[in-house]
Amino acid sequence: MLRRTFMALTATAAIATAAYAGDKSKDIVDTAVEAGTFTTLVAAVEAAGLADTLKGDGPFTVFAPTDEAFAALPEGTVDGLLADPEALAEVLTYHVVAGKVMSGDLSNDMEAATVNGADVTIMTEGGVMVNDANVVTADVEASNGVIHVIDKVILPPS
């Protein structure tokens, strides 16, 4: 039984790693589309009119919430944001840092200025966190930057 559980966990980890492997020839948006776990994020980026920017030269660092992270928001939040492109853009740009910041560049209690203008706080002790979101997969490289997958949508300060 233990062996079967270990094998299942190993297989799951291998599949998850492959899903986020990244293709340095694809931009951030195409990398997110290909991963298949960012459909809400990609739809939001398109609704906010940010797709062309994130397909641009960059480089960008994107803290990318998964579909599960968006689903965990209070009911109606995503629909409300999709109906208000300006508010949606504020939330999405809070997930983007100008430049390519790899996990090796991070330090504990680091502040990073987002494209939104507000800072996020990076913690590295006991796992990497961006504000209160855990980085579940780091360093997914794209042609114009890097994606760090997070388990929660982070909201800019009001």
Coarse morphology: globular
Strand order of the largest sheet: 2-1-7-6-5-4-3
Question: What portion of the residues fall into strands of 2 or more residues?
Answer: 15-25%
The N- to C-terminal Cα distance equals 50 Å
Number of strands: 7
Keywords:
158 residues; alpha+beta; seven-stranded mixed sheet; 7 helices; 23% strand
Task: List strands and helices in order, with pairings.
Layout: H1 2-19, H2 28-35, H3 39-47, H4 51-54, E1 60-65, H5 67-71, H6 77-82, H7 85-93, E2 96-98, E3 110-113, E4 119-123, E5 129-130, E6 133-142, E7 145-150
Parallel strand pairs: 1-7
Antiparallel strand pairs: 1-2, 3-4, 4-5, 5-6, 6-7
Structure description:
The chain has 158 residues and is α+β, with helices and mostly antiparallel strands. It contains 7 helices and 7 strands, in the order ααααβαααββββββ. The protein has helices at residues 2-19, 28-35, 39-47, 51-54, 67-71, 77-82, 85-93, and strands at 60-65, 96-98, 110-113, 119-123, 129-130, 133-142, 145-150. A 7-stranded mixed sheet has the order 2-1-7-6-5-4-3. Strand 5 and strand 6 (133-142) form a beta hairpin. The longest helix is centred in the N-terminal third of the chain and has 18 residues, at 2-19. It is globular. The termini are far apart. Mean pLDDT is 87; it is low at 1-20.
